Amino acid sequence: MLETGKTAPDFSLPDQDGEIHNLTNYRGQVVLIYFYPMDDTPGCTKEACTIAEMYDDFEKNGVKVFGISADDVASHKRFALKYHLPFTLLSDPERQTIKDYEANEEGEGTEHSTHTKRISYLVSPNGVIIRSYPDVDPATHAGEILKDIGG
C-alpha cells in the first residue's frame, strides 16, 4: 500500500471506450482510484454498482472515479454496459499501474495465480495520496469514501 502524503504514480491507460487517461490530466480535482480483481464477478460487481448508485454524490463533490483492473478494454465495455456504470474503467493488462499502486498480489502455484487486490486511493487535486483503503468491503466502500470527503 502506498503511503499518504506521497505523489500518486502517473498512468496512461485506456478506458472502456479505448480513450487514454493520464492521472496528471486530472490535476485540480480529487480522484478516486479503486483497484479490483475482475469484471463481472460478485464482489467486483457489488463494489461497482454501489459506487454507481452513489455516483451523483461523487460528482457533486468533484470526485473523478477510476476503476482499474487487468481486464481488457472489451471486458470493461461489457461490464460498464451491463451494469450502466457511469464512471471510467481503465484497463491495465500489463499490470504496471497495478504494481505501481501496490495492488498486485502474487499467489502460489501457476502463473495464473497473480491477481489484483481490492484497494483504493483518494488523490488530492495536486496529485498527492490523501487516503488509502487497504481493506475494502465492496458493499460499504462507496459510502466510506463519501463520508471521508464530506459528501
From TrEMBL:
One of its GO terms (molecular function) is thioredoxin peroxidase activity. CDD domains: PRX_BCP. Residues 2-151 form the Thioredoxin domain. Its EC number is 1.11.1.24. It catalyses: a hydroperoxide + [thioredoxin]-dithiol = an alcohol + [thioredoxin]-disulfide + H2O. PROSITE patterns: THIOREDOXIN_2. One of its GO terms (cellular component) is cytoplasm. Gene3D superfamilies: Glutaredoxin. GO terms for biological process: cell redox homeostasis; cellular response to oxidative stress. The keyword Cytoplasm does not apply. The active site is at residue 44. Keywords: Antioxidant, Disulfide bond, Oxidoreductase, Peroxidase, Redox-active center. Belongs to the peroxiredoxin family. BCP/PrxQ subfamily. Thiol-specific peroxidase that catalyzes the reduction of hydrogen peroxide and organic hydroperoxides to water and alcohols, respectively. Plays a role in cell protection against oxidative stress by detoxifying peroxides and as sensor of hydrogen peroxide-mediated signaling events. Monomer. This is thioredoxin-dependent peroxiredoxin.
